[in-house]
Amino acid sequence: MRLLSVAFLAVIVAVAGCGGDRGAERAEQTGGGGKRLSIATGNTTGVYYIMGGGLADLISKNLPGYEATAEATGASVENIQRVVKGDSDLGFTLADSAADAVQGKGAFSSAQPIRALARLYNNYTQVVASAESGVKSIADLKGKRVSTGSPNSGTEVISLRLLKAAGLDPDKDVTRQALGLPESVDALKSGGLDALIWSGGLPTPGITDLTTTMKEKAVFVPLDDVLPKLQAEHGQVYAAGSIGKDVYQAPADVATVVVPNLLVVNEKMDPALAESITKLIFDHHADLVAVSKAATEITKETAVKTEPVLLHDGAKKYFGS
User: Fold this and answer.
1) What residues are paired with 239 via a beta bridge?
2) Are strands 218-220 and 254-266 parallel, antiparallel or unpaired?
3) Is 39 helix (H, G, I), strand (E, B) or coil?
4) CA pair distance 155, 143, nearest whole angstrom
5) Alpha-carbon gap, residue 321 to 311, rounded angstroms
6) Residue 109 in contact with residue 284, Cβ under 8 Å?
7) Residue 125: which residues within 8 A CB-CB, separation 6 or more?
């Protein structure tokens, strides 16, 4: 019994020790001889997932000794949580969620130990409603069935803030469904939803699918009327933007709200690795653009503008700051 107890205790200690070393476990040699890196992205029909796959490919092909994979997730908030826990090495996130993380606000009860490798492209808030719903503004969503995005996603954060900015109670004034983009698109097509809210790069494949299928039966909702309230409540992380009519073959440009995206890592990431990944993004920028047009917005001039999230020391070294 004494031997069994000692053995059992040893197992418990070993398992308990795994939580803090998840990153080290992934860094062990894979069958292909490389150290594993996991990239937390988003819904499978969103730009995070597409660009995350492109970044994983670049790392695997051009960073000797490393193999990377893109993981589908709920996006921003979940990605930050995964990076902090060590479940993922890199994560895409909206700047508003990242700001909450470092300030210990919103979904985060305390300041999170994350750093940025770069500011990437802007996410465009895309609110699409069925034409028969009669929705022409966020306020018109009262009494409607609305998808506010996956749980713990940046889309969910923005969705709830949009509704509140329009004077609506997200839990009382709308029938809210927390669906990922693929499910939201399918539900809007089938009549199970009146509208969906999505935050993503342009063009987002899922929204392209929706507008191509529904054509004039799907309409974009302008957001310029709620932007001042958003900025008053949450600051200049929210800015005015426009979805050009050619992006989704819409009748006219649509006024919207844009938020920058960041690529974040744990503050403990090896500086040499952080520098190498940051360098890779710009050395192979054309390859990322080939994967998603949203990557055209990534520039060295804007990449360092990650406030209030600090740049990782490795990224600082690359940018020479």
Assistant:
1) 258
2) unpaired
3) strand
4) 20
5) 10
6) no
7) 158, 162, 197, 198, 199, 223, 256, 257, 258, 259
- Per-residue pLDDT of 221-279, as tens digits, reads 999 999 999 999 998 899 999 999 999 999 999 999 999 999 999 999 999 999 999 99
DSSP state at residue 63: S
For 309, which DSSP code?
Answer: S
230 is written with which tokens?
């958003």
Q: Name residue, tokens 């606000």.
A: 105
Strands (E), 52-173: 66-71, 90-94, 114-130, 145-147
Q: How far apart are CA 196 and CA 206, in angstroms?
A: 12
What stretches in the chain show pLDDT beneath 50? 1-20, 28-31
> E strands, 30-89, where?
35-40, 66-71
Of 108, 163, 121, nearest to 292 (Cα)? 121
Q: Which residues contact 93 (CB under 8 A, 6 or more apart)?
A: 75, 76, 77, 79, 80, 101, 154, 261, 262, 264
Dihedral-angle region of residue 307 (phi above 0 means left; psi in -120 to 50 means alpha; beta otherwise): beta
d(CA 84, CA 48): 19
Q: Is 47 exposed, middle or buried (0-12, 13-18, 19+ CB in 10 A)?
A: buried
Q: Which amino acid, one-letter code, is at 265?
A: V
Q: Tokens standing for 12?
A: 């418990």
